[in-house]
Each structure stands twice: as C-alpha cells, then as structure tokens.
Amino acid sequence: MPHLCPICGGVFGFEDELIYDADIVEPDLPGIWRYRNSFSLPEGSPIITLGEGNTPLIWSKVFGKRIGFKLESLNPTGSFKDRGTAVLLSWLVAAGINEAVEDSSGNAGASFAAYAARAGIQARIYIPSNASGPKRAQIESYGAEVIPVPGPRSKAAKAVLKEVEKGLIYASHAYLPQGTAGIATIAYELTRQIPEIPGTILLPVGHGTLLLGLALGFQALKQCGIISRVPELIAIQAAACAPLYSAFQNGLIEPGPIAERKTIAGGVQISDPYHGRSVLRAVRDSGGQFLAVNENKISSGQKKLAELGIHVELTSALIWNGLEQIQTASPEPIVCIVSGHGLKSV
Predict the structure, then answer these.
(1) What is the pLDDT of residue 235?
(2) What is the mean pLDDT of the chain?
(3) Are strands 57-62 and 65-71 parallel, antiparallel or unpaired?
(4) How far is residue 231's CA from residue 289's CA, in Å, rounded to a whole number?
(5) Integer Cα distance of 242 and 250 in angstroms
(6) Per the domain annotation, does 17 fall within a domain?
(7) Rounded Cα–Cα distance for residues 310 and 342 (Å)
(8) Which pLDDT belongs to residue 346?
(9) Based on the domain organization, do 68 and 215 belong to the same domain?
(10) CB 123 within 8 A of CB 192
C-alpha cells in the first residue's frame, strides 16, 4: 500500500465525489459504520471500531448568536481523527497488513495506536520530542512504540520516511485518502442533528483532512438532493504557522513554502500541507475563507470555551477567536467543530 502514486509521485485524493445513499444507511451498525456503504471498503473488510461517531452537538449563546459546537473531542481517543482511523485500519486489516508506521504531533498518533491495538497491528509512531506529555503517554498506553524526534514537527515526518524506504507500510492520516470517507460522516450526522442546513462551519486546519472530509461529505449530500447548498467553510490557522491563510490572502491556488514557526496550537503546526491545493479550492468553492489567530488569543479562547463547559485542547481553541472575527458576517446557523479534548494539553 504505497502512500504516494507510484506513477506520478503525487498525493492520493478523490478523483470523483463520495457517494452517499440514504436508502442504504444501516442504522443497526454502531456510530460511523451505519454509513459503511459510502466508504468503498474492499469486500469482506472487517469493522474496526471503538465506538467512534454519534458525537453530541450542543448550543450556546456566543457573541449574541446561537452557536453549535460539534464535540468531536468525545470520540474514543479524544479527537475527530478516530473517524478516519477506524476506516483506514479496516483497509489495512483487509490488505493483510500487520505492522505500520505513522508520524504525528499527538492526536493522529494516539488514534492510530488505539485502533492498531484493536486490530492487532503493530504500530510505531514518530512524534516531535516536544509533543504534549499527555498525548505521548496516551500513545504509549496502547502499546505502540514511540520514537521522539528532536526539532520541529516536519522532522518527525522526514524521519518516518526513512522507515518507509525500508519497506514498512506508512499508515499516514495525511497522505492516505481512505480515512477521509470516515471524516465525512460528521457532515452526515450534522444534517440529522440540525433541522436546517448549517450556514457556516468553523474548524481548525493543519494538513486539512478534517476540512476535506467535511467538504466531500456535504458535497455528497448535495449531490443526492438531501441538502441544497454546501455550508461556508471557515478554516482557521495559527498566525505563527499559516501557509494556507497566506496563500488564500494572496489569491494563490496552492500554498508556498513558509518558515515553520512554533505555535502552542501544535495540531496545526504544518508548514507544508500535503493537500493544500485541494483545501484552498474546497474553501473557495464553499464561499468561505481562511482566518489566522495570534498566539496571545489562543489560550484565552481555551478559557472562554471552558466557561461554556467545553474543555478543548489549544488547537481547538482557535475556533473562539474565529467566532470573534466572523460574528457579524457569516450565515447562520453557525457550527464549530471541537476537534480535540482539553485533557490532551494539560
């Protein structure tokens, strides 16, 4: 299972849209698996699950508006990554894979380690040596081998490629597209939880897998006539490391290289997003925009969300300042994706 196209060397993606058919939803299956027929899994693939999906949508009055918070932080390992990881691990098991490597600043690594343990796959995960202590402890608790790599986030990504050159399978949440169909189930759930189509969705963006999953999910719903339009997607980055924001502001179709400056929102500290062109196109097609949040606004956003009873990690806290920036301009109802739990950043 290569992580890049063996012909052109490009990043895999979806040539066609995802297919959603309400007539073949299987409500007796758990969580995201009721939408199994939209995953295009190989015949006979097992269901690898820890109960991901069916996350709550709660509402609060914020900046004078009723705002919905989709609590992806309540997935089994505490982040939205579980939706994609469950589908990816089902692919790996179906392919007969019993050992794989991954790189992560925390959430993807924890998710992969948990689901690999569930599937009986040996996992080795490369993390930045300065990754959150709770996240590293969580990864190790599942029995995965953890390799800390000194330096910025990109160093861990480069280190794992040396293992891939030796023939190991790279189960990358960023490179491999299989998990995107699992993330798309957030869109399917939102249409069941809200009587009207969301007008605007805010979410943090690093590589952009969460945004691409949402965009493909809503597009599939529009294609089959369940919704009439796609919500505006508001993609939020930390100003210290914001290649997609910069490209959007400058009218570029893909992000250029930027310096990898450190941010306390470590989940979006991505200087070279693999799907940058697709993410920029998805935001523009939705009529949305990119926003950047200064470092001094991130921790305060975490505190403000906690005052609503929502404990988020610092990456997810970007949504608060995002709400401040768009409070008078975006169509309602407005939904924020809470991507990760606050216990990960103690």
Answers:
(1) 98
(2) 90
(3) antiparallel
(4) 12
(5) 12
(6) no
(7) 8
(8) 66
(9) yes
(10) no
What phi, psi does 225 have (nearest 5°)?
85, 10
Tokens for 254, please give them: 């893909």
Residues 85 and 74 in one domain: no
Q: Convert the pLDDT of each residue in 164-203 to its tens digit.
A: 788 788 888 777 778 899 999 999 999 999 988 999 999 9
Query: Do residues 221 and 19 touch, judged by C-beta distance below 8 A?
Result: no
CA gap 35, 188 in Å, rounded:
9
Q: Cα–Cα–Cα angle for 288, 289, 292, nearest 5°?
A: 150
CA distance 131 to 278: 28
Q: What is the pLDDT of residue 161?
A: 82
Domain that holds residue 163: 81-170
CATH number for position 103: 3.40.50.1100
Residue 183: Cβ-neighbour burial (10 angstroms; 0-12, 13-18, 19+): buried
d(Cα 235, Cα 203) in Å, to the nearest integer? 5
Q: Give the number of domains in the chain.
A: 2
* Runs of H (alpha helix) within the chain: 81-94, 107-119, 133-141, 153-165, 180-183, 185-193, 209-223, 243-249, 276-286, 295-306, 318-326
Reported as a single tens digit per residue, the pLDDT across 195-252 is: 889 999 999 999 999 999 999 999 999 999 999 999 999 999 999 999 999 999 999 9
Q: Which two tokens stand for residue 48?
A: 């690898």
Residue 105 pLDDT > 80, yes or no?
no
The C-alpha atoms of residue 260 and residue 288 are separated, in whole angstroms, by 25
Mean pLDDT in residue range 54-60: 98
Whether residues 125 and 203 share a domain: the answer is no
Same domain, 162 and 195: no
Q: Is residue 257 within 8 Å of residue 218, measured between CB atoms?
A: no
pTM for this structure? 0.93
